[in-house]
Amino acid sequence: MSSQNLFELSQVAKRFTKGKETISIFHDLNMQIKEGDFLAIMGPSGSGKTTLLNLLGGVDQPTEGQITFDGQRIDNLSEGQLAKWRANNIGFIFQFYNLMPMLNAARNVELPLLLTNMSRSERKQQVKVALELVGLSDRASHMPSEMSGGQQQRVAIARAVVSDPKFLLCDEPTGDLDRQTADEILQTLQLLNEKFGKTIVMVTHDPSAAKFAKHTVHLNKGEFVKAEELLV
Amino acid sequence: MKDLYLVYKNLTRKKMRLFLTTFAIFIAFLIFGAIMTLRGALNSGVEMSADNRLVVVHKTNFTNPLPYSYVNKTQAIEGVKQVTHANWFGGYYQEPANQVVTFAVDPESYLEVYPELVVEPTQRNAWLNNQASVLVGERIALANGWKVGDSIPLSSNIFSHKDGGQTWDFVIAGIFSGAEEKTDTSYVLFHYKYFNETQSWGGDNIGWLIITTLDPSMNESVAKAIDSNFANSNAETDTSTEQAFNKAFIEQIGNIGLIIFGVVFMAFFTILIVVGNTMVLAIRERTAEIAVLKTLGFESMRIFKMVLIESCLLAFLGGLLGLGAAYLLIQVASEYLARFLPNLVLDQSILLQALGYMLLLGLVTGIAPAISALRLNIITAFNRG
């Protein structure tokens, strides 16, 4: 496995203004994520986990500092450039799946491929492969409302990997699932990491989920801390 | 093109809402198509008027007759090219309910003044040479199943025949068509001389004069000259262009333009609010989904276009259905109203206007939600959800 840094955050600060008040989420945050890593980010509510995820996913930009992905700075990209960058490099998995309710599983998985130049037949082929990967080839024509939470999350995983991105961002991917289903989802993520080389960052509250990751970091008040410090 | 499926699925995701919104637009364009066609039919006489044709009627009321001597007197006025005349017969065929617009005219000069009436030369000659014959417009012929050579009795609800009764027997000498689709061919012409000789009262009078001028620029001076010529006589005249005359005739019903504008404006204003509100709600419901699309890499402008396409599709769906229904309604109505509104036709100009309004409706109702989708911030949207 490569040990190159896929992500590098350097002296990143993030502040929000709420009325007259300025809220600082991060101050001078530094972080590296190696290619092929499976990193779990844990921390209490308000610790900055989601903000960090947004920065890594290019849906938000830092107030200060640099974010580099695969050698390319992304903190200074325009909104349009970031959208293209996300389409090319990132797969997103959300806590509540966020599938389009009016599209069947196959059409949901196909969404990221609409941003490519693939023909309809190529897209169909790719969708088939992705659904097979998550074990849902027989559910391709099912609507989200006809599927269980676990199945919907697997469709969401298929959607995240269908365009073969290097990097997967998971925001509480098992937060809405029972233990057994959650473990199945986490095993799928493990498979994607180990067999397909996907770099994964997963935000979770759940220590059992974090165990599936290769590394776990803890955030508290915008800073990385040791796990024991969170208990204090 | 790849996004069309997504647009289609969004449009059809709530069937009842789609049905109700489409129905509202359907009604608006049904009204638009029908009313505009009605206006076109009422105005066709105005639109089809020749530039250099003037109509001379009695100053007091156009139903009052004018002396026949006015024909020659008018011909002598400078700038007048041709003069013809017509009398209203007030005809019906077989039953009073089956009205047939019939004029007693001077055949030769009438056809010269109205070159848009197209008659085959043999039929033209047959009509000119037989005083007891009629020249029938093709639309009224079709409506009554008449053909050349048929004998038809035409009765008048105004005049009586010298031999008693109110019915004149005619032979159809010819059938005239129109040079253009909108040319009125829903009436019957017969010889004034025959009418004058066979009627029991009111001889040597004409209903009105129709003249052509040497040039449209002379219309005003010729009209003034005619009216001055007959001023202070027993039958003073009022001369106007054919267009003005036809317009004034129609406006006896009321200000058609204003009525139509009012109806169409109210229909569209209501629909604008209904559809606009529906689109805003529909997009607001999809805030999280739009945020997901943006997260996946769909650019804001692409989503903006998708929303606009959706609102335009909705407008065209309801609009085309409404226009189609208007077309069918007009087809049925035109059969019943052929005698009164011969040009009840949903023509190309109405179709193009309707398509323009559909596009406008789609853009106006879609622009606000499209802008909010364009501006939607991913993080704010997820926090809201």
UniProtKB/TrEMBL annotation, chain A:
One of its GO terms (cellular component) is plasma membrane. GO terms for molecular function: ATP binding; ATP hydrolysis activity; transmembrane transporter activity. It comes from the Bacteria. Coiled coil: none annotated. InterPro entries: AAA+_ATPase, ABC_transporter-like_ATP-bd, ABC_transporter-like_CS, ABC_transpr_LolD-like, MacB-like_ATP-bd, P-loop_NTPase. Residues 7-232 form the ABC transporter domain. SUPFAM superfamilies: P-loop containing nucleoside triphosphate hydrolases (SSF52540). Belongs to the ABC transporter superfamily. Macrolide exporter (TC 3.A.1.122) family. This is ABC transporter ATP-binding protein. The lineage of its organism: Bacteria, Pseudomonadati, Pseudomonadota, Gammaproteobacteria, Alteromonadales.
From TrEMBL, chain B:
The chain crosses the membrane at residues 18-38, 256-283, 303-330, 350-374. Residues 263-378 form the ABC3 transporter permease C-terminal domain. Keywords: Cell membrane, Membrane, Transmembrane, Transmembrane helix. InterPro entries: ABC-4/HrtB_transporter, ABC3_permease_C. The keyword Nucleus does not apply. Pfam families: FtsX (PF02687). The keyword Membrane applies. GO terms for cellular component: plasma membrane. It is found in: Cell membrane. PANTHER family: ABC TRANSPORTER PERMEASE (PTHR43738:SF3), ABC TRANSPORTER, MEMBRANE PROTEIN (PTHR43738). This is ABC3 transporter permease C-terminal domain-containing protein. The lineage of its organism: Bacteria, Pseudomonadati, Pseudomonadota, Gammaproteobacteria, Alteromonadales.
